[in-house]
Design a protein that fits this description.
The protein is an alpha+beta fold. The chain is 21% helix and 35% strand. The protein has a single domain, classed as SH3 type barrels.
């Protein structure tokens, strides 16, 4: 699976099912995800590749949790209009 840093993904399993995250890091068969609220940049969630679905959107990773929340909020809003 071709997942890169900065890509927006959707969780398919767990208590965060259906939520969007940004990929902070990729190591072995795991990705590290953050949303700026439940999972902050300094403590990303470790998740297996098979538990996420990727989108075609790749962004520059914001430097703050506030920026991350704003970016994901805009992404959700734009994709709900489609």
């Amino acid at each position: 699976m071709d997942i890169v840093k900065g890509q927006i993904v959707c969780s398919n399993a767990g208590h965060d099912d259906g939520q969007f995250f940004i990929v902070i890091d990729v190591k072995d068969s795991f990705v590290y995800l953050a949303d700026g609220k439940e999972r902050r940049l300094d403590a990303p969630k470790k998740k297996n590749f098979k538990h996420i679905s990727k989108t075609n959107t790749i962004v520059e990773i914001p430097k703050s949790d506030k920026g991350l929340r704003k970016l994901l909020s805009n992404f959700r809003r734009v994709n709900q209009e489609d």
